Amino acid sequence: MDPSLPDIINQTAGNVIAFSSAGQQDLNNQWEGDVRQNSKHSNSLQQLNNGVKVPPGPWKCSIPDCDKTDNLWMNLTCGTILCGRKYFDGTGGNNHAVEYYNQTRYPLSVKLGTITPQGGDVYSYDEDDMVIDTQLAKHLQHFGIDMMLCQQTDKTMNELEIAANMNLKLEYDNILESGAALKPVFGGGYLGYVNMGNTCYMNSVLQVLINCVGKISNKYLAHNTTNSEIPTDFGTQFKNLIHFTEHPGKYSVDPEELKPGQENGVRPALLKSIIGKGHPEFSSTRQQDAHEFYLHLITILEKEERKTPSLACSDDLCFEVEDRIKCNASEMVLYKSRKEYCLSLPIPLEKASNFAAAQAWEIRKSELEAAGATIKPEEIVKYKVNLVDCFTMFSAAEVIQDFLSPATNQKGTACKTTGLKSFPNYLMLQARRFTLTANWQPKKLDVLLDVPDVLDLEHLRSSGLQPGETELPAGPTEAPLEPDPTIVDNLMGMGFGFEACRKAAYHTKNAGPEQAMEWIFSHMDDPDLNSPLVIEQPTTTTTAVNQDDVQMLCAMGFTAKQATKALKKCDNNLERAADWIFSHADELDVEEPDSAPSTSSSLPDGPGRYKLRAFVSHMGTSTACGHYVCHIRDKAGRWVLYNDEKVALSITPPKDMAYMYLYERM
After folding, report:
1. Residue 66, CA distances (Å) to 52, 89, 629 in order
2. Which residues are CB-neighbours of 334 under 8 A, at least 6 positions away?
3. Distance of CA 656 to CAs 32, 181, 345, 348, 628, Å?
4. Of 18, 185, 223, 392, which has fewest CB within 10 angstroms of its CB?
5. How many CB atoms lie within 10 A of CB 322?
6. How far is 322 from 216, CA to CA, in rounded Å?
7. Which of 61, 150, 200, 390 is catalytic?
8. pLDDT tens string 314-360
């Protein structure tokens, strides 16, 4: 502020600078990170009678050799003002607030500058999370701060999260088509799902599956259950949501006709509870990865199909991926196939049509950030990549080093290519927009995809062993998968625990550091993340079970048939079988055929020609925060935007910014 100007002018200018525009406020409100919980310390916090009174500012970190005047946190026990954590890029504070907690164990701190009559940012070091202090006004008054007179002078944690990506506002505007007069639609097929707190990822995936994959809706609408099963039965609750989606009645009306207190849309709370039961992530109120949720939902659909074969519907989305491995020494080949429900596509930035310009912008952006200069949205240059190039990279030949050839019994090289053995009725794609920087930091690729409405993928069809090819002989029993030490070392260098890094490498099948990093970030809150890794032994061909182990399980109250099934599922490992039998109680009495039909013969297959039917978009810097919406092409051929309970016709559907795409066979 200019001291030569009158106080009223300085005050007015300060208010203007601190004011958030209506659009920014809407963005802040739309933004979804973790839902904050009431702190357990709110009603029991001990405050010292040390006479400390905190002035209205300016503030400075109380550590003598620290000059931080922003990102300051006041401890609510003693009133000490200290700087916050240092971020991975060197910005932020100097960790003095967290170091002070480690010394004193005083649990709650409030970020100065974020306090308004509505509240403020409070962090609980003991609970290791942002929390709600229900007694914040009282706790502030203890140090002479009247919350009702406070104004925001610093960015909140939500605003900092948004500001961390200068593209976010632009991304938000483009995906939600901000500024365009979108016409609301309502009635059958246009029911909104109310956001119950970080449930936009679930809402978007459910909208796509229910509105697009007719077999799913038809099968579950014909599903019958007894009344006693309704509260906890997935089939019943899923059926209810499908029914309301197709026949919404008063839950989907013209927004202008809404009565006071009336809500457009339904709240699928019971369904969320059932889907998330027993899952450390989807049972929480945290934001999640829509792709992971989709795969979890598919797992539930498969489980329901095993219990009730008449519900079989997931096969409309299922297909086989086939790997062809050619031993370069013997020129013999090996074909391996696996079942998938989503094709994950890499994004080759080097194939961008504007690669040179985008590279130049990356350099320029680094210079601007180093200088602390403002980046204007119109300056941003995004990579532009064609989706066809993503498929090319997916199927490109890959050299396998140290390949132990069953033909020569020696190590050498092999060539691996990948194709599709079958084409589903609906093909779900995931664009791998999340990667790691050179400094091993997670990053969302700033890329626009040129996504065609029509895809012809027949050139990717793989048909197994061809005339003139000789199949590699069967090799020795496959050894148990061991975590790649290189991947483990890379992750440990970033500060993660040894066992967490081993698990990340193991559960991603040593696919690489990027995939392992994604796994860690999506399992950060798992209570057993740092517990020792249990490596599963490869399944043997024998079906015999140890009868002593059967008797052990029977002594726990299970039948011999159930015990035998559990032991077979777990390769005769008694400890694992005991865990399996308790976690799969609903599958114990499901009959399974002695010999399952081959996967390829039981899956739908047809021409690999598709038309884009829907896509799910993500706004934010990582899948653990931000916001999800979906766009669906309706029966009239119009694109419709589903933004939780808000449903409207789309004018310019942002296909180039989506995270997941659903294609329908033509």
Report:
1. 20, 18, 43
2. 324, 325, 326, 327, 471, 472
3. 22, 21, 14, 15, 15
4. 18
5. 20
6. 26
7. 200
8. 999 999 999 999 999 999 999 999 899 999 999 999 999 999 999 99
Pull the structure tokens for residue 265: 């849309």
Rounded Cα distance, 538 and 478, in Å? 7
Pairing of strands 383-386, 129-132: unpaired
pLDDT tens-digit map of 367-393: 887 887 777 778 889 999 999 999 999
Tokens of 638: 């119009």
pLDDT at 615: 98
Q: Is 99 left (phi over 0), alpha (psi -120 to 50) or beta?
A: alpha
Catalytic site residue 96? no
Place of tokens 């059958």: 188
Q: Around 417, how many Cα atoms within 13 Å sit in the side-chain half-sphere?
A: 16
Which residues lie below 8 Å from residue 555, measured CB to CB, with a gap of 6+? Answer: none
- CB distance 54 to 43 below 8 Å: no
DSSP conformational letter for 309: G
- Helix ranges (H only) for 226-330 are 234-246, 269-276, 290-307
Q: Which tokens in the block code for residue 211? A: 């509105």
Q: Are 490 and 498 in contact (CB under 8 A)?
A: no
**Which entry of 296, 627, 630, 631 is annotated as an active-site residue?**
627
Token pair for 351: 């194939």
Exposed / middle / buried, residue 474 (Cβ in 10 Å: 0-12, 13-18, 19+)? exposed
Residue identified by tokens 């365009």 is 180
Question: How many alpha carbons lie under 13 Å from residue 284 in its C-beta half-sphere?
Answer: 20
- Model's pTM, two decimal places? 0.68
- Written as one letter, the residue type at 286 is R
> How many CB atoms sit inside 10 A of residue 502's CB?
23
Q: Kindly state the DSSP code that residue 6 receives in the 8-state scheme.
A: -
Report pLDDT digits (tens) over 413-468: 999 999 999 999 999 999 999 876 655 556 788 899 999 999 999 999 998 899 99
Strands 72-75 and 81-83, sheet pairing? antiparallel
Task: Please spell the DSSP secondary structure of 396-465, one letter per residue.
Answer: S-EEEEEEE-TTTSSEEEEEEEEEES---SEEEEEE--EEE-TTS-EEE--EEEE--SEEE-GGGB--SS
627 catalytic? Reply is: yes
DSSP string, 188-203: TT---B---SS-HHHH
What DSSP element (H or E) covers 326? strand 319-327
